[in-house]
Design brief:
about 525 residues, 5-stranded mixed β-sheet, elongated, alpha+beta, 11 strands
Length: about 525
């Protein structure tokens, strides 16, 4: 470990300051001279010139070629002057001395070249390391951003309410970009906007949800409103307007934002701010835009779901009203006419002579047939829209269904007041269908019906001990009930494992009905 650190210090990709190299060279030459002088006293027959290569190698490895060559020449001169048999001359006088110099200089120059190559390789290695680190950091950042986008996209695909998507998108954008000041804004007018979701360094919000900001002066939201495109402000120093002043008070120095466009209309903006002095990277707008697009999809989906729910509710309401009119027309028209005809025929039957027994029997059969038709019409009318539901409400209507059921029914009803008509009708048909299925298909021996009405919702549960296997589909009447319940923004759940009975659970909100 120590050797590796020492090697990394000596063979550096970039050279230290030149003055330091000169000092190092001078120190090495001085130390080498003193050391060789001492060694020659011990072993005069040895020149010890190779020791001067140590300083040359160090300077060559740490500094440039020029300083290394200068060090080499200086080392040769000192070596010649102090240690060769030249009578203190810088010119070798003997062949042995000249040979030593001739050998020393190429070796020193070769050491310079080798050290330069080592420094070049170190620089290349350092560059590759930095590029690898930058690539890894970029890959990790991209992976985190993609993961954050997937998490928000999952919420959107699940149809989660906008009130949950907004803070989630803000938090994920913050995590994905490493930016801690994020706000989702909605344009109320051309002069003002409102904060829908926000996050800062403390995980809370310096700008509370619901706060309204002005669009006057210099701010990112105003630029987006003006252009409909991403915008940025790299410095709020000198920026005019109340919103710019508010941002400066929060310690923010720059901001970048992207538009939230819903159905081709500018709905709002997603904005991030930074307290750092340097501007945010140039690709920040694109990353914010990805999250802004997901928010736009969530808003569009929510609007579509709301429109679909409202449309289904209108269709169900219109159908119920038509059924009521049909039931009323049957009761007040055909049924009353049949009853009237039956009474008239009974009167005719009673007035006939005693000897007309065969004709009287025929009239009696006709009257009995009319009574049967009247009974069938009453059953049809009851199926179209139960009169007991209109008169007594959900509780009495469920009790009537229980009395008519061929399967024993246990009731647990806590519905003490009238509910909205659409809710009562939906609950009535759910119970009626469940009891019919229990008798015809489930082979059940008992059914339990529970109904609880709170101040904001109706909770309904119907359970049987039959063979199970019920599904909402494949021609089952349950699919129509599911559509009816969901048209009221309610939920219908079916649990029907094989040989374990069937349970229908319904929850319908009462608010806004």
């Amino acid at each position: 470990m120590l050797r590796a650190r020492l090697l990394a210090f000596v063979v550096r990709p970039t050279a230290p300051p030149l003055w330091l190299g000169i000092v190092v060279a001078a120190v090495f030459i001085t130390a080498e001279t003193l050391l060789v002088h001492r060694l020659k006293q011990i072993a005069p027959e040895n020149p010890f010139g190779a020791l001067f290569l140590l300083g040359v190698l160090v300077v060559s490895a740490g500094w440039g070629f020029r300083l290394a060559v200068a060090t080499s020449l200086a080392s040769v001169l000192v070596y010649v002057y102090f240690h060769l048999e030249t009578s203190r001359s810088f010119i070798p006088m003997h062949a042995r001395d000249a040979l030593a110099v001739v050998i020393f200089l190429p070796v020193a120059l070769l050491a310079n070249l080798l050290a330069g190559q080592a420094r070049l390789r170190a620089a290349e290695s350092e560059q590759r390391r930095r590029e690898a680190e930058a690539s890894h950091a970029a890959t990790s950042a991209l992976a985190e951003q993609q993961a954050a986008l997937r998490r928000v996209a999952t919420l959107v695909a699940r149809g989660v309410d906008q009130s949950e998507v907004y803070p989630a998108a803000v938090a994920e954008l913050s995590r994905g970009l490493g930016i801690y000041n994020v706000a989702l804004l909605r344009y109320e007018t051309e002069e003002a906007l409102v904060i829908l979701a926000t996050l800062d360094e403390n995980g809370s919000s310096k700008m509370p949800i619901g706060e309204r900001l002005s669009l006057d002066g210099d701010n990112v939201a105003a630029k987006i409103l003006s252009t409909g495109a991403p915008a940025r402000i790299d410095s709020f120093d000198g920026a005019a307007g109340r919103t710019a002043e508010r941002i400066r008070q929060l310690g923010m120095r720059s901001a970048v934002g992207a538009p939230v466009i819903v159905d081709g209309r500018l709905w709002g903006a997603l904005v991030i701010a930074s307290s750092q002095n340097e501007p945010m990277p140039g690709d920040t707008e694109a990353h914010i835009g990805d999250f802004a697009d997901l928010i736009a999809i969530a808003i569009s989906n929510a609007a579509t779901r709301a429109e679909l729910t409202a449309s289904r509710a209108r269709i169900v309401t219109a159908a119920d009203q038509a059924r009521r009119r049909f039931e009323r027309d049957l009761h007040d028209g055909a049924q009353q006419r049949i009853v009237s005809l039956g009474l008239e025929l009974r009167a005719v039957e009673a007035a006939m002579p005693a000897e007309q027994q065969q004709l009287r029997r025929q009239l009696s059969d006709v009257v009995d047939g009319l009574v049967g038709v009247g009974t069938e019409l009453r059953e049809i009318s009851r199926g179209i829209h139960p009169a007991i539901l209109s008169k007594g409400g959900l509780g009495p209507a469920i009790k009537t269904l229980a009395r008519r059921s061929p399967v024993p029914v246990e009731l647990d009803l806590n519905v003490d007041s009238r509910l909205p008509e659409s809710v009562e009708v939906a609950a009535y048909y759910v119970v009626a269908e469940a009891l019919t299925n229990a008798a015809k298909h489930a082979q059940a021996s008992a059914v339990r019906v529970c109904a609880v009405a709170t101040h904001d919702e109706l909770q309904l549960s119907i359970s049987d001990d039959g063979i199970g296997g019920a599904v909402a589909g494949a021609g089952s009447g349950l699919i129509g009930l599911k559509d009816r319940v969901e048209a009221l923004a309610g939920r219908l759940r079916i649990s029907s494992p094989a040989r374990s009975g069937t349970t229908l659970t319904v929850v319908v909100p009462l608010q806004g009905e």
